[in-house]
Amino acid sequence: MISDETIKCQNLTYLINKNKILSNINCSINAGQIIAILGPNGSGKTTFLKCCAGLIKPSSGNISIQGESLSTLGLKKRSQMTSYIEQHPDFELSYSVKEYVSFGRYPHKGIIPLLNKNDLEIINNALENTDLTSLVDRPISQLSGGEQHRVALARALAVNSNLMLLDEPLAALDIQHTLNFIEILKQLTQQGKTILISIHDINLALSFCDKIMLLNEGSIVFFDSPNQESLYEKLKIAFKVNAKEEKQITFFK
User: What pLDDT score does 2 carry?
Assistant: First the structure.
């Protein structure tokens, strides 16, 4: 039986040379939510996402995904249940766009990854949703930085996992593709998928995320809906700045 609780962290701690990068992280995240992970540089955002993806092992504590301990999951099953975009994707530049995006289906295949009609439909949808259909045969080495980031997003979509872990995926996108991808994320949550997204643009995070997780010095200092008044005081403390409300330009599709 699949739990409504997509991911749960209990006393999650990560040390490097006895320095605490993450300290006793406790959180529970249900299906169908977008969680923005905010925090100053060095607050532990990337480390937290990598722990949740199973790419690095916590020093102590436990992470469970859909009720199963991450430490007991094999690579294949973990790759089916999660999709991760790192902050600076490491591309195999010799592959074409479509070949690279197709790798997102490999965790669901056998030793010989033969793609069926359903796989191809998922891949084509991922390419269409990230505006890459005109570039499918282009080598990744010939793409701009923003286009390469869209390829990484498309591959994550092709995995079709219930948990997406995204480390600064919007950083290299222009306004149009940022808004398009936000709409895709909203649609995914309507399908019951859960998204953890690290983001530097605080105003953007407040505009579309269901909850804000604010990290500071490796600890969660706020984890709640973005309309809580206490958030703004926590943000000022974490980022060591004063803040005031200003008129902003609002972009929309």
Answer: 43
3-state secondary structure string, 220-232? EEEEECCCCCHHH
List, for residues 185-214, the tens digit of each pLDDT value. Answer: 999 999 999 999 999 999 999 999 999 999
Buried b (16+ CB within 10 A) or exposed e, 170-201: bbbbeeebbbbbbebbeebbeeebbbbbbbee
* pLDDT at residue 65 tops 60: yes
Cα separation, 103 vs 74, whole angstroms:
18
28 domain residue, yes or no: yes
pLDDT of residue 253: 54
| 124: in domain | no
> What is the number of structural domains in the chain?
1
Identify the domain containing residue 29 by its residue range: 5-88+161-239
94 — phi, psi (to 5°)?
A: -80, -15
The strand order across the sheet containing 163-167 reads 82-85, 163-167, 194-198, 34-38, 211-216, 219-224
Distance CA 46, CA 38 (A): 10
